[in-house]
Amino acid sequence: MLNDTTQNDLVIDIRHLTRVYGTDDATVLALAGLDLQVRRGEFVAIMGPSGSGKSTLLNIMGCLDRPTSGDYILDGITVSSLDRTELAIVRNQKIGFVFQSYNLLPRLSAVKNVMLPLLYNTEVRFSDEERHEKAVAALEAVGLGSRLHHRPNEMSGGQQQRVAIARALINEPAMILADEPTGNLDTKSSVEVMGLLHSLHSSGATIVMVTHEPDIAMQAERVVCVRDGTVVSDGRDGAGHCLDRGGPNDAR
Ligand code: ADP
Ligand code: MG
After folding, report:
1. How far apart are the first and last CA of the chain?
2. Is the C-beta atom of 230 inside 6 A of ligand 1?
3. Deepest in the core among 48, 52, 134, 221, taking most CB within 10 A?
């Protein structure tokens, strides 16, 4: 199942994806035949108005949900045909998630939070000591070597998001998925977190980030705009907005 015979350098190959919510006369077509390819090492921002299907797309990309129809190949694995157990394994090994609300476990220290994905790694079994060492190294890499034993509520929002990024990286995923990673942060923390994503990108990470902030989107090398469940523009002009119309209202 986890056979990485990637034929090319596409990390994401999505073909004619649909996702229908609900049944009978109360159905919503959240994704309406969406196509998207992401190459290894790309930094992509996804924008689009509220209700356009961004979260639905991110959930499917992150193996949290399955499409109604269409194909999704993630790092050479045909994800659209996997069952829930297989999806969970792929999710753990291939995806690093960063959420707007950090999603750290409140009762665990930074180092314990970062260790968690290693515990669920079914491919490689690490000893407690190895997990601890790896988590410490990951936290040092995001500049939090002095906060190893702090709990989330003892850290600033920016620090919590850096813990979340360390956690996202711990299993060396094929791709980082970030949903509004700076949405809850002040300007300074937001700059720090984006700086971290930039340095990950320069060291080869593939990053897909949903945002409604044009100044955040323009920092990605590619801006994909989704509307009514399909891609309506896909640009690399660095403008940080949707090329079909643009403007701040459009970005929400
Ligand atoms: P976005 O993240 O761009 O705001 P979503 O992916 O959340 O958009 O939603 C796309 C469409 O699907 C919207 O019309 C939304 O109301 C609908 N939708 C999302 N999740 C569900 C759900 N669990 N059940 C029914 N409809 C949903
Ligand atoms: Mg959303």
Report:
1. 38
2. no
3. 48
> Closest Cα to atom 6, ligand 1: which residue?
53
Share of the chain above pLDDT 90, in %: 78
Tokens of 48: 């689009």
What's the CA gap between 18 and 208, in Å, rounded?
19
Q: Report which of 88, 91, 51 is spatially closest to residue 177, judged by C-alpha positions.
A: 91
CA of 66 to the centre of ligand 1 (A): 14
CA angle 236–240–243, rounded 5-degree value: 65
Q: What is the pLDDT of residues 40-75, one digit of tens each?
A: 999 999 999 999 999 999 999 999 999 999 999 999
Global pTM reads 0.89
For the chain, what's the residue count? 252
- Taking only the tens place, the pLDDT of each residue in 79-116 is 988 988 999 999 998 999 999 999 999 999 999 999 99
Q: Which ligand is nearest to the CA of 57?
A: 1
**What is the DSSP secondary-structure string of 56-96?**
HHHHHHTTSS--SEEEEEETTEEGGG--HHHHHHHHHHHEE
Residue range 43-63+95-251 in CATH 3.40.50.300: yes
Strands 28-39 and 10-21: antiparallel
Q: What is the dihedral of CA 137, 169, 109, 147, to 10 degrees?
A: 50
pLDDT band at 251 (very low <50, low <70, confident <90, very high): very low
Does the C-beta of 18 come closer than 6 Å to ligand 1?
no
